[in-house]
Amino acid sequence: MRKYLPTLSELVDRLSIVQLKEVFIPEHKDEYAQEIADIVHDIQAHIDENGSEITAETIRAIVVLSQMNLHIWHNESNYRKGIKDGNNLELTHGLNGIRNTAKNRIQEVVGGRKDYKIDCLAAEFKDWEISW
After folding, report:
1. Phi, psi of 53 (to 5 degrees)
2. What is the pLDDT of residues 57-87, one digit of tens each?
3. Interatomic CA distance for residues 48 and 2, integer angstroms
4. E strands of the chain, at which residues?
5. Own/partner pairs for 33-40, CB < 8 Å, 24+ apart?
6. 87 burial class (0-12, 13-18, 19+ CB within 10 angstroms)?
7. Considering just the CA atoms, what is the radius of gyration of the chain in Å?
8. Strand, helix or coil at 122?
9. Distance between CA 26 and CA 129 in Å, rounded?
């Protein structure tokens, strides 16, 4: 019996990332589609086993999580391509903190482990703050 299973928020986070990969890395679309199917299966199993009640706030946290993952994807992708204009790794770091907060909000509804290392945004990125 496994002792350290991914939480629902970790599964949703991974689903968001793999969905981006399926779109942005088309040469591996089939592999990502299979991983998506596996993650969706595990999400449904988690919901069925734990009787999780997904709320509107949970859905909002999932949307925020997905949006942060997309922006982080674009920012890091451009940085790796050498495109420095508009890319700020400090912003990516702050967005990762928002991402972790969104995951914690999901966990508040369904229960389970949370990530307590939540970095705050630098003052110049206050427009990115979420109105939880």
Report:
1. -100, 110
2. 999 999 999 999 999 999 888 888 888 776 6
3. 18
4. none
5. 39/11, 39/14, 39/15, 40/15
6. middle
7. 16
8. coil
9. 32
The pTM of the whole model exceeds 0.70:
yes
Q: Are 93 and 66 in contact (CB under 8 A)?
A: no
Structure tokens at 126: 């206050």
Q: Quote the DSSP letter at residue 112.
A: S
Cα separation, 66 vs 100, in Å, equals 11
Determine contact, residues 78/87, Cβ cutoff 8 Å.
Answer: yes
Dist CA 92 CA 68 (whole Å): 9
Question: Could you tell me the two tokens for 98?
Answer: 């928002």
Per-residue buried b or exposed e for 25-51, using 16+ beta carbons within 10 Å of the residue's own CB: eeeeeeebeebbeebeebbeebeeeee
Average pLDDT over the chain, rounded to an integer: 90
